Protein 1
Amino acid sequence: MSLRRAQWAVVGDTFPVGCKPSDKIVYPEFFEANPDTKDERYNTKYGVYEPNCGLRNVHMSWGHDEYLYHMMKDYLPESALYMMRYHSFYAQHREEAYDHLMDDHDREMFKYVRLFNPYDLYSKAPVPPNVKELKPYYQDLIAKYLPATIKF
Ligand SMILES: [Fe+2]
């Protein structure tokens, strides 16, 4: 596989699908290889969306943000869900490249996404964490906020 055909493998940032990808997304040059960029249904500023339709109506690229959001959506408060679902959406929370899809509620909730950001990239310690030592702390948190069995 050539590098030019590997856009699907560009991960890290998440972004809306179904509309023109912003050049603020990491490695924007790889989107040229995505067939959606040649499809007039998906390659315009709004694509399949209405102006300021709200992110609840926007399909995001798949990644651990989206996975965790779907696993937690029945259990955690909305502010926490926004932090999970959009923490890799750097093109918006850092660059504001998708403001045209956001509604006022999203803008309010993105305050929490930005508050979480210092704990995302480049926040890792050089020494691996001591799992045995930390596990009780995280198990207490899980027990506090989640039922013993979660829906899958
Ligand atoms: Fe992450």
Note: Residues 3-123 form one domain.
Protein 2
Amino acid sequence: MVHGQAPMKSMIDTIFALSSGHGRSGVAVIRVSGPAVRFVLETMCGNIPIRRMARLCTIRDSGGEAIDRGLALFFEGPRSFTGEDMAELHVHGGKAVVQALLGSLAGLVGLRPAEAGEFARRAFENGKLDLTAVEGIADLIDSETEGQRRAALVQADGRLARTYEALRSRVVELRGLAEASVDFVDEGDVPASVTRQLVSGCEELAKELMSLKEGFQRGRLVRDGLVVVIAGKPNAGKSSLVNWLANRDIAIVSDEPGTTRDLLEARLDIAGVAVSVFDTAGLRDSAQSVEAEGIRRARELMERADLVIELVDSGSVQLLETGTTEDNYGDKYETTRWRIGSKADLVTGKTYGLSAISTKTGTGTSELLKRLEAFAVERAGFTGEALMTHERHREAVTMALSGIERCSRHLESDEVELAAEELRMAGDALGRLTGAIHTEDVLGQIFSSFCIGK
Ligand SMILES: Nc1nc2c(ncn2[C@@H]2O[C@H](COP(=O)(O)OP(=O)(O)OP(=O)(O)O)[C@@H](O)[C@H]2O)c(=O)[nH]1
Ligand SMILES: [Mg+2]
């Protein structure tokens, strides 16, 4: 226990929760985990089904009254998700059915509703899942696009954990070597071969940690998605474009300049990549206070966007002649900017080298969509690698990397003892990633972000 956080309620309790989605559905799944699972099955289903075999039965409350007919499954610990005895009850997903079932479970001795993330937490405590897998499952549940799903699955099935564990065991090995050579220091000198081994070991580790860290930027984008801002002068046709991209009326379109004032977000799936497209207030200087605030927000978002599509009314020729079609700006965020002409149907002939679109006639829109797809895949498409996607991982890997770098410097000046200490800290940082080393704080943070029933 660290920092006096409340402990998770006793693991001896048997917990239950609705694990399928809330609201009306064909089937609802209620999970039960803990020592009283056999008792629950005997009481509610008459007997215990054969392990891992679905059994159709009448599910009854403790008074013997039928709640519903459904399927009961029994998973005997430790061969279950949580590692404990578990049951799954599949009933019709009506609100009253679920309520009645949860109500009668609550009435049984030794049972209580599960807390958020408690099933996953028990799985972790019982060595069924490591922390990266736990996060992977949470991401899988939250995934909205193919890219997000595939990246989450790589993490959920333990590939990232294996990478971290392999790195950690190499750090531990080097530390053993460094600690063993501390004795040589007393006797005179550390043999050159040992120092060489330590130095090259650190070099290799640093290289690999660095490349993991470099993958974070992409991993983050795969997981969180891209931010695309549609910007431009009032009346340029921004809201019309956002509505066209989203395929529904998200924003009000009118010929009055200054219609949009707030940031409006459309969450889209573009070629498997999660993309948030934002409609913004038209940029102009003469705006009144509310609109001016909208413009301030638009500019702020443009600074941290992955892509800004600047729409320029194709009628305003001067602008078309001066603008470049693509350029990057901003050093903190790699923002790409496209200038695109709007209302192409209103001009005939020239498009001045700009790709122009019309949301009215559809001119150029499929080209724009293709360009967007290519951009999304290039920036944030899932490539099959196990990439770091969580800030927690970036922090731990950064910590391990700086430990290794300090270790190398100590080795240069023959301070093996200090080098060994840095390796210890680097190893611990990597151990915290999988939860091999953990504190209540970190666990609390990870599991509480889960919903109940997970
Ligand atoms: N002919 C034509 N008119 C368009 C096109 N796109 C938008 N418009 C019209 O242009 C006007 C402004 O469109 P909006 O989409 O509201 O423009 P906006 O950039 O969001 O404007 P603000 O929110 O005021 O900054 C409306 O009258 C639209 O019907 C187009 O492709 N062709
Ligand atoms: Mg608008």
Note: The longest strand covers residues 66-75.
